[in-house]
Amino acid sequence: MFQSLTKRERQVLDLLVAEEGISVTELGRMLQVSTVTVRSTLNALGDKGVIVRTWGGATPAFHTEILERQRTNQEKKALIAAAAAEMVCDGDAVMVEAGTTTSLIGRYLFGRRDVHVVTNSLLVVPYGRANPALKLTIVGGSFQAVTESLVGPLALAELEEFHVKLAFVGTDGFSVANGTTTHLVEGAEIVREMTRRAERTVLLADSSKYGRTGFARVLGLEEIAVVITDDALPQRAADEIRETGVELQIVGKETARAGGER
Fold it and tell me: In what side-by-side order are the strands of the sheet with 115-119?
């Protein structure tokens, strides 16, 4: 969703996040454009579901933490999500856990047929709406604004009803010693259940998350079939991961070289 924004739309959104309650007039002054242009941009953002219009201005439709994570390592996240989507074939059923990287998988499933996606992420919904060939099932549960996800007992119970080929999951931090970790316990429960319901689990994590440790442990690295990350991952870390027997896929400018080492 956020990747489809124009440069001006991103500028306006950034200002809305940085300065709560900023007016149309002030936006125009800071961007050096007319108020007519600002209102047109706000209308476009509203149509895309990114903001909610208010009297005299607008407010972001998403938690500011989501917006911050969306802006971090955008190119790397896109490459990782595209590589993950390549693992999905026509007719497959997959699960996609909530996250700013995992949700991008939907963006790269255009052209596939009869793909069923089960997810707890509301960030995946726009891709399902735009892609009629995608069968999208959103599990119920308690809404968690900080991750745009549905969690809790209801979500876990509904996940038990499915069996899929692949589960695509994310993490706040991972390492050989600590496995995958997260700051949100409710999210950890979702990942564990998706792993139980899938034939293979695929971890999507940019290299900045290697070595970080979150509050709650989620999975041991041995429970993951494939790790997809970017080419900024240190060689020592790559060697450690491969020594566990986990398949490591590295994307980016060094993808061809790394692919030969897998």
Answer: 134-138, 115-119, 93-96, 164-169, 198-204, 226-230, 247-251
